[in-house]
Write a structure and sequence with these properties.
The chain has a four-stranded parallel beta sheet, sandwiched between helices. The protein has a four-stranded parallel beta sheet with strand order 3-2-4-5, with helices on both faces. The longest helix is centred in the first third of the chain and has 15 residues. The relative contact order is 0.16. α4 packs parallel to α5. With 283 residues, it is α/β, with parallel strands linked by helices. It folds into three domains: 91 residues, 4-hydroxy-3-methylbut-2-enyl diphosphate reductase, catalytic domain (Cobalt-precorrin-4 Transmethylase, domain 1); 84 residues, Rossmann fold (3-Layer(aba) Sandwich); 88 residues, 4-hydroxy-3-methylbut-2-enyl diphosphate reductase, catalytic domain (Cobalt-precorrin-4 Transmethylase, domain 1, 3-Layer(aba) Sandwich). It contains nine helices and twelve strands. Helix content is 38%, strand content 20%.
C-alpha cells in the first residue's frame, strides 16, 4: 500500500517541551516523588512510558503531600498553583507558552472590566485553567451556549488554542449578532495547530483512506479527525496500530496518515511502516 504522511503532524513545540522537561526531572537522582497534575499530555502511550520512568499522575492537589509537581502542557488554574505553593512543593511549570498567553489575556480582560468569554470545550483542562484566571468566565462551545451571555455586557473573547479558524470565526459571528455593549477579541489560536489542520485536509483529498493518530481524548486530534471526515468519509481516528481493524484496508490503494500534536513520532513511524507492508489483496 502506498502511504503518505502529512507534512505537518505529531508533536508541537509545547508538547515536546513538556515531555523534555518531564524526562529531565525523572532522569535526576532524587528521593522525592515526581507528580503530574493531570496527564502531562493527552496521549496514553507517552503517559505510560513516563509512568514507567517514575512519573505519578494525579488529578487533585490534595493527592500530593511532598515532592516535585509538574504543571502539564495544558496549564493549571491560579488557585491550584497557590495550593501547591502553600504545601511547599517544588513546582516545575511545563505549560505551553501559547496557553500561558491565553491565561494572561483572560486576566487582563478581567482587570479591565470585561466579561471573559472562552470559545472552546468547558471540560478540556486548558479551558478549565483559563476559566480559573478570570472571575465568572463563560465558556461557549457552540451556538446553543449563547444564552449564557448576559445582554449589554462588555465582552472580552479568547479561544481554546486548538479550535479551528472556521469554528472561531463562526462563533464570533454568532456572538456579534447578539446584544453587547463592547466587544474585544484577541486571536489565541495556535498557528501550529492550524498548519496541522490545513495539511491534514489537503492530504485527505488525495487518498482512499485517511488515518488520524492520537489520543481519543485529545482535543486537537479529534478536531483533525472531524475536519478530515468532512472531506473524506473514509477517515479513522486511532490511538495506534493496535486499534486498527485491518478489514477496512481491503480495496484501498493509497492511505494518508496524520497525527495530533500530542502523538509521538514512533507511533506515526510504526503505523506508516505497517501500512506500507500490508497487502491489501491478501491481508
Amino acid at each position: 500500500m502506498k502511504v503518505i504522511v502529512a507534512e505537518k503532524c505529531g508533536f508541537c513545540h509545547g508538547v515536546r517541551n513538556a515531555i523534555s522537561i518531564a524526562e529531565k526531572i525523572l532522569a535526576q537522582e532524587q528521593e522525592d516523588d515526581v507528580y503530574s497534575l493531570g496527564p502531562i499530555i493527552h496521549n496514553k502511550d507517552s503517559c505510560e512510558r513516563l509512568a514507567k520512568a517514575g512519573l505519578k499522575t494525579v488529578n487533585k492537589v490534595d493527592q500530593i503531600q511532598s515532592g516535585t509537581v509538574l504543571i502539564r502542557s495544558h496549564g493549571a488554574a491560579p488557585v491550584q498553583i497557590a495550593k501547591l505553593k502553600e504545601k511547599g512543593l517544588n513546582i516545575v511549570d511545563a505549560t505551553c507558552v501559547l496557553v500561558k498567553r491565553v491565561q494572561h489575556i483572560a486576566e487582563e480582560f478581567g482587570r479591565d472590566g470585561y466579561k471573559v468569554v472562552i470559545i472552546g470545550d468547558e471540560n478540556h483542562p486548558e479551558v478549565q485553567a483559563v476559566v480559573g484566571c478570570a472571575k465568572d468566565a463563560v465558556v461557549i462551545a457552540d451556538e446553543s451556549d449563547l444564552d449564557k451571555l448576559a445582554k449589554n455586557d462588555k465582552l472580552g473573547i479568547v479561544c481554546q488554542t486548538t479550535q479551528s479558524p472556521e469554528h472561531f470565526g463562526r462563533m464570533l459571528g454568532a456572538i456579534g449578532r447578539g446584544s453587547f455593549k463592547e466587544l474585544k477579541v484577541i486571536n489565541t489560536l495556535c498557528e501550529e495547530a492550524i498548519k496541522r489542520q490545513q495539511s491534514a485536509v489537503e492530504l485527505c483529498r488525495q487518498v482512499d483512506i485517511m488515518f488520524v493518530l492520537g489520543g481519543l481524548e485529545s482535543a486537537n486530534t479529534r478536531r483533525l479527525a472531524e475536519l478530515c471526515k468532512k472531506v473524506n468519509k473514509q477517515t479513522f481516528h486511532l490511538q495506534n496500530w493496535n486499534g486498527l481493524d485491518k478489514r477496512i484496508l481491503f480495496g484501498k490503494n493509497i492511505a494518508g496518515v496524520t497525527a495530533g500534536a500530542s502523538t509521538p513520532e514512533w507511533i506515526i513511524a510504526e503505523f506508516a511502516g505497517n501500512l506500507k507492508a500490508f497487502d491489501t489483496a491478501r491481508g
